Prior knowledge:
CATH class of the largest domain: Alpha Beta
Oligomer: single chain
Radius of gyration: 21 Å
Strand content: 5-15%
Amino acid sequence: MFKSLGRRGAVGATMVALLTALVGCGTTGPQGGAPDDGSVHVWVLEDDKMNAAQQQAADEFNKNSSVKVVIDRFSPDSYPDKLRVAMGSPNAPDVFFNWGGGSIKSYVQAGTLVDLTPTLDAKPQLKQAFLPAVLEAGGLDGKYYGIPLRGMQPVVLFYNRDVFANAGVQPPQSWNDLLSLIDTFKSRGITPFALGGATAWTELMWVEYLVDRYGGAEVFDRIVHGDQSAWRDPSVLQAAQTVQDLVDRGAFGTNFASVDYNSHAASTLLARGNAAMHLMGSWEYANQLQDDPDFARTKLGYTTFPGIEGGKGDPANLVGNPTNYFSVSAQSKNKDTAIAFLDQMATDSYVTKLLQAGDVPTTTSAQDRLGQSDNPEFATFQYNLVQRAPEFTQSWDQALDPNIGQAVITAIQQLFNKQLTPEQFVQTVEQAR
């Protein structure tokens, strides 16, 4: 699920298939890989607040290490392709930022990643430092290939408190509530849900939650493990039919297909009261805080996506981005040092830096420190969601092979735009390769 790093986010795995230009980066060495200077090179995305936390971790580690860690920063636009090229060369980074799941599958298959399972087994204190569901999302086939490096990013149903108060209604507790709210807000000339439909990935999270609520998390779990027939599960067709029912009901207004999320248009609709709700990743709070601090702190409400009556999915299940990860290259000439550096991600000082940067850490110790966040109430809400979730399904475009993920997103956009029928949608995604 793509979200601009400048807007407090991370590039989704599907961008691997889209980005082709190898353009400039931060403090890295020659094009194609890290310099062979005897240091451990850690590749990260450019983000001032996060880079400060990462640099502090490197500085603390370097105080007691003869092999030094160097943080190399890259533009998010160039990073996926630059990483792909470097990992296929003799100059791969020692440690690198990634999204887990499908974003590292090709590297695992090529044998270019270090299996961190033995490390975590030998260091139970490190393994136990992170929420289990988040740690598992950084691996494949029961093995661990990544250590969480930043905060959790569940998809949340945001709403405008003033718009709800003026209409005399409450956030939806059930699917029938949600349908009733659509009618209520339409009658008041307010778009029920802001949706940046010109930015295709924004529509993905609707389908993710609907499939989960109808069929449970196991449906996509089968898909991500290679069972293409799982696309034929009744829940996928039900989700597709529900999407078009919502479109026909006017849930997203009449021009959602031309609303660009990356230009902040959908977020602005919510903040100005032109839309009542917005289904979006938890980074929406930080985006609103940057654009309209007063609205973010006093008028931006948040709740969970409701359950569906008769559905198999637990209403406490989540979808979204569990977090981002550091993985270690099998080509590293300093594997022991590279692996040892990962311990820094669980230190108190690093967790504090994450909180100061506005992230909600994925460490089990974070709960007692959420008061250090700029919005303790929202931080606690997120942490409790993730901690209590029976299942946290990784964003489909990150969990799937990049080519399949992009094909699925394209089909979802066509579904919303009614260029595919629900039945055609199922057929299209089942055939995605």
